[in-house]
Specification:
By secondary structure, the protein is of the alpha/beta class. The chain has helices at about 15-40, 60-65, 85, 95, 120, 125-145, 160-175, 185-190, 190-205, 220-235; strands at about 45-50, 75-80, 105-110, 150-160, 210-215. The model has no long low-confidence stretch (mean pLDDT about 95).
Length: about 250
């Protein structure tokens, strides 16, 4: 049983920032090579879920980790409040239609888990609906994994409450970051404990495991995500299609 309060949000004590940044650079380059093979081979799909509290670095991680990947083989979706059309469908409708096809990497900034996180925290759905949706999420992810050869990487962006405050204040103090400022983030912060409970429920009841990514040090965040993905994709032995002889 995962308890987020028992897991550090910081980088391990035994690592050096300079060394980790050098390793991350190599991993990002290797990921670019693997992504090209994935796109050429078209036997597997990859879904990367970046889920976490406001200011946990979801967008920054996507930019840093996939910097060496070809844009033609990727999609990026930032899920916000559903539109009227999306509200008129089941909660997975907007998710399923942007799931990655074979050969593609799809990055989700927030995801289908919003529907058992923010909605649960604010009491917009009851516990019975939460349980039903959790079962639906597991079935959906298993469908992607086993019916479409989708490699699913779910990263909980584990930020401390203190570091979140630092990041949120930077958005108001730094003119170059002010565009990220949203007064609603401070209101959601007041519900921190409820969100932690909701995240722990989602993490502990998922069929496909989560990766708890420490993000208080952005340089370690990028390393953790890149290493996790590269190591898993290496095991697929991705290859370019064989040359057809005339």
């Amino acid at each position: 049983m995962i308890k987020l309060s028992k897991i550090s949000t910081d980088a391990p004590d035994n690592v050096r920032e300079k060394d980790i940044k050098n390793e991350t650079e190599d991993l990002v380059k290797r990921l670019g090579d693997l992504q090209e093979r994935l796109y050429a081979e078209k036997k597997h799909a990859v879904l990367v879920v970046l889920q976490g509290m406001d200011a946990s670095g979801k967008d920054g991680a996507a930019h840093k980790v996939f910097d060496n990947c070809r844009i033609t083989g990727m999609t990026y979706h930032a899920f916000k409040k559903p539109t009227e059309e999306e509200f008129a469908h089941d909660f997975l409708w907007r998710i399923h239609k942007v799931a990655p096809e074979k050969g593609m990497i799809a990055i989700f900034n927030r995801s289908h888990y919003e529907d058992i996180l923010i909605q649960r925290v604010h009491g917009w759905i009851d516990e019975k609906r939460v349980e039903q949706r959790m079962r639906a999420i597991n079935a959906f992810e298993e469908l992607l994994a086993f019916d479409n050869n989708t490699q699913i990487f779910k990263f909980y962006m584990h930020i401390s409450k203190d570091e979140q405050e630092v990041q949120l204040r930077q958005r108001t103090d730094d003119p170059e970051k002010y565009w990220k400022h949203n007064p609603g983030d401070w209101e959601e912060r007041k519900l921190w404990d409820k969100y932690m409970e909701a995240y722990e429920y989602a993490i502990n009841n998922s069929s496909i495991p989560w990766h708890i990514c420490p993000v208080d040090r952005r340089w370690y965040r990028d390393y953790f995500i890149a290493k996790t993905i590269v190591e898993a994709l290496e095991k697929l032995h991705l290859e370019y299609p064989a040359t057809i002889k005339s």
